[in-house]
Amino acid sequence: MISNVKNFGLFLIFISTFILFHACKQKPRQRDTKKIAVVISTLNNPWFMVLAESAVKEAESLGHEAKIFDSQNSTALEADHFENAIVSGYDAILFNPTDSDGSISNIQQAKIAGIPVFCMDREVNAKGVATSQILSDSYSGCVAIGKHFVKSLDKKGRYVEIIGMVGDNNTWNRSSGFHSVVDNYPDLIMVAQQSGEFDRNKSMEVMESILQAQPDIDAVFCGNDPMAMGAYQALVAAGLEDKVKVFGFDGASEVITSIQDGKIQATGMQFPELMAKTAAAFADQYFRGEREFPEKTPVSVELVTEENVRFYIEN
Hints:
There is one protein chain. By secondary structure, the protein is α/β, with parallel strands linked by helices. It is built from ten helices and twelve strands. The longest helix has 25 residues, at 2-26. The protein starts with a helix and ends in a 10-residue tail after the last strand.
């Protein structure tokens, strides 16, 4: 009797194992790990490096694969990256656009292919194309910079504005926010406005050229921190670094240190890690079946000056 019970038990184990084996063979487990493309406008900027690397780190922490693609500020190269992501079977794209209008068609191609696109930091001029856009509140951030600018110059003086890339909405949001304040003071006179293309070397060249025509200036407002550092280099070369006040935007570590050292007046602290983490989290939620996302998610910008810079120094 005992022998029969043992034999029956072994038979049940054999049958259960047989059924489980064939069930797994007939119905393979669905792959949980997804592939995420992180397409960045340019890696020739430390701030965007932080954005890209934070997106990858967060995606990987959520159990997914992620790869960075550098568009080098070219919509054509950006289009190649999107085509590659579509053909290679990527499941989502975390995207920092090169151009507010020129990047729309690339997102549309991904949407047609069923691939969600989550924009980071830079927006595109189209609704319902990107799955969601996570953006710095550049306008409000530059309103705060404008107020500090007015106070620092005691409401009067001649200044230069170096804007970013003409096709980027951030360029005009920042400029508009700044001018919404500064233009109310008639004794603050803008003597030149040129594009530094968000690039340090380009900004230095632009500043050098402007100084030849307008050597008597009191301040420079730059649309990002690399341009602020480029402008500052040009002022140092001209021996004007102690006379001309420089204002930036981004919150780059080099500029934070420069504010502490009294070289740069102020910047707007953005939070690329937060934007990247939010985009990666949204992609993960999409993989889990979520389809309702906010059209835009604004991320606040904080004014950093010599009065509060100690709170932003990395230890």
